[in-house]
């Protein structure tokens, strides 16, 4: 297997660092628009490479917005697989470039949505991944696989959902992805500062787009941003965090492959972060269209054009560089409700927690990007071994969850040494009956 | 009198529209970096000119950051007075340019402050106006006048303070400027939208700098932004608004010329606006230093440098253009506490209210910029008539308040037809004794 990773930001860098401990592939080309960044990733990965078969990691420059450039680079290196690790705005160009190169394709975020022109907070317009699923038959006919949404969320969350449907439930009411953390970033004075732990561009995109929900008897529909806040009690010492509906790939993927009455995604943004996102939106600083602004470069006066959202990203610290100053844990998981194999009401929270201190010590990668990056590497390993195989545009839940979850938990060098947990919770009364607050049981 | 107005933004434009109804000057040159903007102001003013002595208003282009350009333009037109109506970051270049041209000078905001390097929220560093007052003897020796802070706040507020000291009080505890409004801006759908009614650049500057307070036995000192929130009940139907300490020129001006135990400025920002400003500061979007950002201009790709605060200003609507969509009133005033001429405790709120509907109908100017602009025009008229005169760097409270307040209230064509109000309030107990909430009396 020869892998082309497009993008060496936080996640691409962690992909290389994780892959350096695995022997299932011959070569990994790490390409970025900023080749110096790719060089740094490749140097770190080669220095940590356990395969000891010569330098397996190679840096390259590529413009992710140019499908022909992706194709040319993939062909040059004989890439069998292209792993897309850039901002979701470049999904379609990398997806197309991989297809034209005859390579299989993986990503961690799907093609972008466009709100319904008249009723954005009631009906879906163009949905996440629609552009990719439209190409499904082309990929299938060519016998090539596009494994989409194969990060942690979407990705591991979809694997959890598949596992629950196959092995834990006879009937599923809701597949509810719930993501939360207790991360803080410390400033120079040791006091917490505001610093998002993941790409602010992507976070704004997913949080301010109309959140999508799926129900079996209604199909996909949307609600206003930050709808239905609920306090979810996260395990592992993280504790209660306010979660709200967010547009996310799981809601588009799971119903295509799994049976459930309802599919939701709620993100534990916390009150402070929700307030920040609301303000950015109120001011129009979330906008991506170019705005004319006075140049602040004395050597090049006049007017320049910038995207306000790019400016927001530029003033915030690079999330991938925050690892040393970050404290806490991040938790990704799926709350599954319904009836167990015995027909009794059941509620489980399948989840995976990464402690930043651990991922920094082991990989030099902060926990949020590490937790995202480990899943596509693991999926590539299952594909390399032939444990997973398929053709067409498929989500993670199209594959058997057991070998994935086993490999994730198994200690190194067999597995990735990062256990997941099944937590039984006290089932809530079914919808339509009187409700009382749920009391989470311990894991 | 020949006046050079530097800047034809909201306030400069309103200055010309107000001046068009007065006959005390021969010529007004309106200069802007964007000459098209100056042209629009001049066209509107000439069309409304009541003097009918030929076109009194002339447009010009000028770079306000270049003192030599200010001097050259002032000389070219034989300007006797330069009125500075640009962002406060250009105060020193316009101030210097006017001096070198041998012209008198007026502004509505003073030279910028710099926080104390170690204890920014306890001690003052470089204070507002320090750079200007340092030149006082030079202006005095030259027999030239620099009338600084001659807008509404500072400006009319300082005139109110002088009036209270001269005519209403025997002993002043506090001169407390209090500014509030009930303005809303309606969007295309008729619903209120977020749109600041004054330059966001200036608002960020004054609200995020350490607020300054003066006490007779302590001198000037600073506190953290948004300190000591209090709900102030504004008259004229505006009602209660949350006010917080803000860095403002009155606190630097009044103690230089008037006797009081304490001088404060509190701005009725309201909770929503305070939250927005806090968020901008948390994210670093209030910063003025250049930040490198990807160009969003396909014709000029690469990296450009912009000031984040300029980007915030660029995404928000131009406050001067909001008049048609604005509803409500703005109130500027000074709460004076102490002992009246009879020795009894007294509390008065001297204030001036402008209804946006009135200023739009009369002048085509929104109320906040109109209320700012009327005061320097009126001061220029008093200087032209010789009612006010002086040399050196002086604040509005260095001059007799009575002719100013009389001219403001008197109906046109004698006065400006915009009455002010003296509202008696129930005196609060003196500091150090038990306090009960004050109950405002009606005006």
UniProtKB/TrEMBL annotation, chains A, B:
SUPFAM superfamilies in alphabetical order: NAD(P)-binding Rossmann-fold domains
Pfam families in UniProt: Sacchrp_dh_C (PF16653), Sacchrp_dh_NADP (PF03435)
GO MF term list: ATP binding
Residue ranges, compositional bias (Low complexity): 428-443
Occurrences of domain Saccharopine dehydrogenase-like C-terminal (ranges): 151-408
Coiled coil residues, start to end: none
Record key words, sorted: ATP-binding, Nucleotide-binding
InterPro entries to which the protein is assigned, alphabetical: NAD(P)-bd_dom_sf (IPR036291), Sacchrp_dh-like_C (IPR032095), Sacchrp_dh_NADP-bd (IPR005097)
Domain Saccharopine dehydrogenase NADP binding residues, every copy: 3-146
Region annotation (Disordered) ranges: 418-443
Protein name per its UniProtKB record: ATP-binding protein
